[in-house]
Amino acid sequence: MVKPKVWSITGLVVVSLITLFLWLGKTPYTEPETNDQHPSSMQMEQSADLRSFESPDDENVPDEMEHNDDPASPESPDALAELEDDQQVTQPDVFPLITGPLELPVEGATGWAAVAMPLYSEANTESSIVTDFDAGQVFVILREIDDWWYVRSSAGESGWVEHIGCLINLPDIIPSIVYNITNAYAAMTRSSGYEIPGVTGNKLYDAYSYNLRLSRDEFIAPSLYSTSKMLYAAQQIALESGDTIILHEAYRAYDSQQKSLALLKALIDSNEEVRNAINYGPWNLSWFMATKMSNHQRGAAFDVSLGKVLTHSIIQTGEVFIMRITEYDEYTMPTAMHELSPLAIALARPVTPRSRDAWRDVPLADTMTPGAVLLQNYFDKAGFTPIASEWWHFNDLDGVTVSTELGIEGSFFIGEILSVLP
Description:
seven-stranded mixed sheet, Muramoyl-pentapeptide Carboxypeptidase, domain 2
């Protein structure tokens, strides 16, 4: 029994020596490098080379006005955590950070009752009514359950509303979009290049305010909640190609539209060139500005352009991170925004804007630029429908149907916002 024990001990010693020898000869362990781009509590800025790509309501058709530039938006002291990161990141690295049905949760966003509606004590129509909201009542969204929002109004009244009949402030939930509501500071609207007295260069309504949620001054841009999700989809498609939507108008009050319409008609009466252009071939006034109800009043239409992202930053708001476009180049478009004449047509001939697919059988206008075609493609993929007379205008036809059934008429102007951190 002694020899086997000796051989066993000897074997263990030999194995140990071999293991020690091999371990000493190994390259020291190094923590593998990672490429984790999650910003944690830091802001990352980039100036990356991004992929370049050269690259249009009711009644007879939609509506509009005009604008196009990049606004010189005044910046307030930024209370958000913004720290530079030494690491350069590529655009695709950032996109996965934006997840969920929207970029930011609806909790803390500003909303409006688009029609008169009850404020219920519970999330069902059988519960008691706290009060009745008038169309245009502003509130902050505190909670969402299925088809209901728990909200608090500017008067401090809290309860539940059915969000199908509500508008939501787009910058509160899709902050990566570039907002430039020029009608809120200097309308660019023209017809055949002619200024429209009382419209062009004028502020048509208030839509700019300090936004506590974003810790900066920002435009106010309401739309139907369901339509906002489609806009988010379009922005995601654009971002994946290194582009961004530039939103020029969402909701527009009916009275504002009618005042501009009256001034446009006055120009048509006094200017033969404008009159002849507006009524050229198959086109007429209603194709360039809705003479009755517009889908903008319904909260289901957008006027947009497209830009190539040059730089962006990641910032923290509350417990979440968002992307903000800090620099971009706008694509060349057929005309400036809100050129009300056949110069701005997207399709070679008129086609009903009520059909989802009739426009597909009509050739594009010869004046459509690659950038305008790219914009149309992004919105088409997101479920929007273009119109024949305006390269910038897109409709959410499902939203149009719902808002028409609910009787949303754009009877109010947008005033304050109540947005808070998400």
